[in-house]
Amino acid sequence: KGPGKFFHRPSAVYLYSFAGRTHIILRSEPNLVKEASVVLGNESFPVRRKAGDELFEYFEAVLPKKGEIEYRFEIRRKDGEIETLGPFRASPYKLEAPRWVFDRVFYQIMPDRFEKGLQNAPEEGLRGEQFHGGDLEGVRRRLEHLEELGINALYLTPIFESMTYHRYDVTDYFHVDRKLGGDETFSRLVQELKERGIKLILDGVFHHTSFFHPYFQDVLTKGEKSRYKDFYRILDFPAVPEEFLEVLNSDLPGVEKYRKLKELKWNYESFFSVWAMPRLNHDNPEVRSFVRDVMKYWLDRGADGWRLDVAHGVPPELWREVRSALPEDAYLMGEVMDDARPWVFDAFHGTMNYPLYDLILRFFVEREITAEEFLNGLELLSARLGPAEYAMYNFLDNHDTERFLDLVGDKKKYLCALAFLMTYKGIPSIFYGDEIGLKGRLNGGLSAGRAPMTWNLGEWDTEILDVTRTLINLRKESRALQLGTFRPLKFEDGLLVYERAYEEEKVMVAINYSGEEAELELPAGYRKVRGAQRIVLRPWSFAVLTFKE
Ligand code: ARE
Questions:
Q1: In the chain, what are the domain boundaries?
Q2: Is the CB–ligand 1 distance for residue 168 below 6 Å?
């Protein structure tokens, strides 16, 4: 007995408005609440149990209102006691994200691996890795493919001057790599993207530069006298021993040279233990203005936003400072691999949704959690992110992961997961080649999924292509899928059934992720439209039903 342990505070993830409605979250100790409601004057709104972990349970009410409200909770405990919490009077928190992001489906391209427009010959890059010779002219020539697929946003991995095919070690932030076609090709691409209504985000590598960036080279030659010595985190001078430079400048073949260098010691912070990527010193105000200037420069030249590499390795204050200096309609998306909370409210609009990816892997690939656990995981994430989950960058795979199709090993299963991605909250994305069933290799480390795109149509899986296109178009046409609430209807065994709703539009998604047929009673609204009481889902299949109220 005694007062229950409840928590609510009228801010951020506990009270927010999104798409014209207000979400109110109540947190409690586990197993305490039988039922609860939110009371505003003489109106009462039911509260739904959302999720729970070892420490807490979360409850949520959704009100068809926005603007300042005064409300209290009425809670009936499991032991019969009634408690009230409040009253609170406050204006709901509002997410500040560019409006254009919500109706987007992204397509991610690693330019070296997509299409050769300039006929660069394949060559060996730094450290013996292969350039395949793709470029931005190639991307430009294939825009029709993207348009036919229906995507309306593009994320390009780094495109600036660099000595590696992946270009995550930048040597000049103000020029597009000549091998990719240089600045002119970039401008042409931007113009054609704009004509087609496709937004563009670039990959900003500001955690580190290349070892060969002129600033770092200056530190190497001038040591403590270098004007750039505080641009990096040099632990001791000289930054590299003599021997290191000798090996580096020797005629040894690439692979051997880099194996030798790896064994030598160097005196600066870097990305993991990669000597070729010295870490910038983000405490230096000059570095912060440099980051801001580069970001602004390319936004001025037609980019619509940035994906920020190793964002979790850069202090959030830097991103906050930068964000306040950039136009509000630039989408900022950080590569943050774990908990996004310290980042999503004022540093970025969204992050790469790795926590969601983990859940997806555990349910769709590993089969290690049940549908109920999957749902609980989704709702816990939702309780943590609040409105920010709608601006997260969601994916089944990307340039750092294995391809999802390789992981599930079956196209029907892949398409079920894709159906989930395209109908869930957050911005969905496709990694180049996924739409045609491009395969990579398992356990291939970071490059597992980076096989070059094939333009030999005979190698395309047209069923995957058709379904992908259908799902993308469904997503783009539905405000409910982009902005709507999420209501679970049935999460049991392999069955995931939920409704997304926005104003009068309702979308029911049913995914049968099992080898057995599944029969499903339809909720009233959907029966009328279908003229049926129930539907039967084949093994490993899904259905998306809609109606207007
Ligand atoms: C290359 C080779 C690797 C080799 C490595 C070291 O491909 O096989 O092991 O060199 O010699 C870029 C390139 C990579 C390249 C790397 C280093 O794309 O091909 O690797 O540079 O030169 C961590 C970081 C996360 C990072 C991933 C890769 O936290 O920020 O590792 N992701 C970004 C980009 C990458 C990019 C870089 C960073 C560097 O998306 O493409 O790599 O600019 C767990 C840990 C995570 C860890 C993750 C690794 O989840 O918790 O912290 O992420 O594993 O997958």
A1: 6-94, 99-119+148-158+175-206+283-477, 214-278, 485-548
A2: yes
Atom nearest to 400 CA in ligand 1: 41
What would the CATH number be for the domain defined by 99-119+148-158+175-206+283-477?
3.20.20.80
Cβ of 536 less than 6 Å from ligand 1? no
Two structure tokens written together for 471: 């799902």
Question: Which tokens in the block code for residue 271?
Answer: 């990305």
Q: Which atom of ligand 1 is nearest to the CA of 335?
A: 30
List the pLDDT tens digit at each of the 549 positions of the chain: 445 689 999 988 999 999 999 999 999 999 999 999 999 999 999 999 999 999 999 999 999 998 999 999 999 999 999 999 999 999 999 999 999 999 999 999 999 999 999 987 777 776 667 899 999 999 999 999 999 999 999 999 999 999 999 999 999 999 999 999 999 999 999 999 999 999 999 999 999 999 999 999 999 999 999 999 999 999 999 999 999 999 999 998 888 888 899 889 999 999 998 999 999 999 999 999 999 999 999 999 999 999 999 999 999 999 999 999 999 999 999 999 989 998 999 999 999 999 999 999 999 999 999 999 999 999 999 999 999 999 999 999 999 999 999 999 999 999 999 999 999 999 999 999 999 999 999 988 899 999 999 999 999 999 999 999 999 999 999 999 999 999 999 999 999 999 999 999 999 999 999 999 999 999 999 998 888 999 999 999 999 999 998
CB of 163 shorter than 6 A to ligand 1:
no
Q: Which fold has domain 485-548?
A: Immunoglobulin-like (2.60.40)
Query: Was domain 214-278 assigned CATH 3.90.400.10?
Result: yes
